[in-house]
Amino acid sequence: MRRTLGIVGVVATLLLVAGAWRTNMPNSNPVLQGAWTVTSWEVDGESVTAPQPGLIVFTETHYTMMYVDVAQPRPRYAGEEMTDAEVMAAYITFTANSGRYEVNGSELTTRAYVAKDPNYMADWPENTETYTFRLEGETLHLQWPSDWPDGRSGTFTKVEGQPVPW
User: Fold this and answer.
1) Residue 35's closest CA among 145, 130, 161?
2) Can you name the residues that pair with 63 across neighbouring β-strands?
């Protein structure tokens, strides 16, 4: 009988700990979960309505963000290997980072675990960015932090149930 009570006690304790761990997980937003493709940008006050590819994916606790942040297609390189100038042109026009995220009201805070930018990645876990977002059905409006130099905002469409551009 004591052994049974001991086992029940251990199981109950494990369930309580698991429940507490679960409630201490970052606050996510189930509506954000899924894949979102960029449909427009506003940069430096100018609209880009035919943007280059961009994709944000949210799971329950993690995100990945990759996009080409210029209006024109990135130039293809000419030879078998990229020149230093071609590498720089490809690198400078592309953003990529992934990590954890939290939602608090209309604020989305990301914490990049891995990023294209080594300085940004090196600041883990203090490298947060807080965006403002608004959802309208299958459309996500995302305003980049106010300290970004170009005043960037973007509109994204949820991929699920939508025609995929690729």
Assistant:
1) 161
2) 58, 99
Total domains present in the chain: 1
DSSP state letter for 20:
H
- Picking from 152, 112, 138, the residue whose alpha carbon sits closest to that of residue 35 is 138
The pTM of this model reads: 0.77
128 domain residue, yes or no: yes
Q: With beta carbons less than 8 A apart as the criterion, state whether 49 and 42 touch.
A: no
Give the model confidence (pLDDT) of 2-18 as tens digits: 544 344 343 333 333 33
In a domain, 60, yes or no: yes
Q: What is the pLDDT of residue 10?
A: 35
For residues 124 and 34, give the distance between their C-alpha atoms in angstroms, rounded to a whole number.
Answer: 24
The per-residue pLDDT for 115 is 94
On whether residue 14 sits in a domain, the answer given is no
Q: Does residue 143 lie in a domain region? A: yes
